[in-house]
């Protein structure tokens, strides 16, 4: 096996975020683990076939850890612990299992270390500071061959210098972390920036001038946003939000896809997506890990502004959005290679989807407003797919964003989830 390579890492500069594994086993029940050749070599050397039979499965030319019928990993023990870890040590597990919930997003200079909020310990902010994991992260980075310098775009035509992408992240992070601005306005500001910058040309606004432009735009937001009041979201905009939320819940399992076949699986997905767009009757079942509710009941749940846990919910949402931006998961290699401008729009839509899904989760438990439990479930589900589900980096998702940019759609659907504004 080749010696591990050294790659510069930039650990997520978010001092308030903490993480330590608490052995809940949720990731072993929820994720499909794709295997690298080094992982396969380790598994063969460990000799699991003699005890467990086939422990991997091939699907569309790639190999994955086999999952049991209940969705759990073949190596998940009854006590929630990993059998490979227990018998051979942490470093003997597949690299994807070792790395979670951390992520690597290479740019032109280094790999930014982000963190996934699909982990219960990350959501609850439990454990030591992130810098304490740096040694292990460096070791794991040396085993990932695809970590290589990657370019970042400002828009579809303009490549960003590393300091320009950093300027966008710095300015946006300062806006998101400004506690003097109500949370709904901070999300609205992200949506407004995404909409305004969509038609901008960056050819003559580069380097220090780009940072100055972004700082000017963000600095003007507290005065500018009230001059552009938000009308209630239209029925069509809310239908698009529900459809976008569906695709963040969608969780195809290899066993189910192989059993159903491509045609039946595609038809089933289409029918569930159409039900979400219509928003009438009972929500289609979305697996064992997401409760179902009546769409009408979701509409009756108050937005986040009516939550008894409002302060805790907003703290989580802000921490998640800041971690996404600072950890390289809002654009570039950490988000389907999308430009900064497109990533801004996707971030605002992800926030709106998290708000709607929190209301849906609350409706399933007959709560009148989202609780912290509901927001944790929603953020975990949205972040689980963000940057990972190929359909969310597709042309269809870009079309949803392009349509929502029209007539203030991005602002309207986000505002309706967090502010208490009426819906159309």
Your description of this structure?
This protein is mostly helical and 424 residues long. 39% of the residues are buried. The protein has 18 helices and 7 strands. A hairpin with a 4-residue loop joins strand 4 (102-106) and strand 5 (111-115). The strands form 3 sheets. It has a 3-stranded mixed beta sheet, sandwiched between helices. It starts with 8 loop residues before the first strand and ends in a 6-residue tail after the last helix. Helix 9 runs antiparallel to helix 15 (340-364), helix 9 (183-197) packs antiparallel against helix 18 (409-418) and helix 15 runs parallel beside helix 18.
Key terms:
mainly alpha, 7 strands, two-stranded antiparallel sheet, 424 residues
Element layout with pairings:
Layout: E1 9-11, H1 26-30, H2 37-46, H3 49-52, E2 56-59, E3 62-65, H4 83-88, H5 95-99, E4 102-106, E5 111-115, H6 120-124, H7 134-141, E6 152-155, E7 158-160, H8 162-176, H9 183-197, H10 208-224, H11 235-249, H12 254-278, H13 295-300, H14 310-326, H15 340-364, H16 372-385, H17 395-405, H18 409-418
Parallel strand pairs: 1-5
Antiparallel strand pairs: 2-3, 4-5, 6-7
Helix pairs in contact: 8-10, 8-14, 9-15, 9-18, 11-12, 11-15, 14-16, 15-16, 15-18
């Amino acid at each position: 096996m080749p010696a591990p390579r050294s790659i510069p890492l930039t650990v997520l500069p978010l001092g308030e975020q903490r993480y330590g594994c608490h052995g809940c086993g949720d990731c072993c029940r929820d994720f499909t683990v794709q295997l690298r050749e080094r992982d396969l070599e380790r598994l063969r050397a460990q000799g699991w076939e003699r005890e467990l039979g086939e422990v991997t499965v091939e699907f569309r030319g790639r190999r994955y850890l086999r999952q049991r019928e209940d969705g759990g990993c073949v190596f998940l023990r009854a006590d929630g612990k990993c059998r490979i870890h227990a018998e051979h040590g942490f470093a003997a597990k597949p690299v994807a299992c070792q790395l979670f919930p951390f992520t690597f997003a290479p740019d032109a200079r280094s790999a930014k270390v982000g963190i996934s909020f699909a982990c219960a310990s990350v959501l609850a902010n439990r454990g030591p500071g992130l810098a304490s994991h740096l040694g292990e992260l460096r070791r794991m980075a040396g085993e990932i061959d695809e970590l290589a310098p990657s370019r970042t775009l400002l828009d579809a035509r303009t490549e960003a210098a590393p300091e320009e992408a950093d300027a966008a992240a710095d300015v946006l992070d300062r806006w998101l972390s400004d506690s003097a601005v109500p949370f709904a306005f901070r999300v609205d500001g992200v949506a407004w920036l995404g909409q305004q910058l969509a038609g901008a040309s960056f050819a003559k606004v580069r380097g220090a001038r780009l940072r100055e432009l972004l700082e000017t735009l963000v600095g003007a937001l507290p005065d500018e946003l009230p001059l552009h009041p938000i009308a209630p979201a239209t029925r069509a905009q809310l239908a698009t939000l529900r459809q976008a939320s569906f695709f963040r819940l969608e969780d195809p399992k290899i066993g189910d896809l192989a059993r159903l076949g491509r045609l039946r699986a595609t038809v089933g997905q289409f029918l569930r997506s159409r039900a979400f767009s219509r928003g009438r009757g009972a929500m289609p079942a979305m697996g064992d890990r997401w409760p179902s509710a009546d769409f009408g009941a979701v509409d009756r749940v108050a937005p986040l502004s009516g939550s008894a846990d409002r302060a805790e919910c907003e703290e989580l949402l802000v921490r998640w959005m800041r971690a996404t931006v600072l950890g390289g998961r809002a654009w570039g290699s950490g988000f389907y290679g999308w430009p900064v401008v497109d990533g801004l729009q996707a971030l605002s839509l992800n926030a709106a989807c998290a708000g709607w899904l929190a209301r849906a989760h609350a409706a399933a438990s007959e709560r009148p407003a989202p609780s912290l439990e509901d927001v944790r479930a929603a953020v975990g589900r949205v972040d689980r797919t963000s940057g990972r589900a190929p359909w969310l980096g597709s042309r269809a998702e870009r079309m949803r964003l392009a349509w929502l940019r029209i007539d203030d759609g991005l602002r309207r659907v986000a505002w309706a989830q967090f502010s208490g504004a009426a819906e159309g």
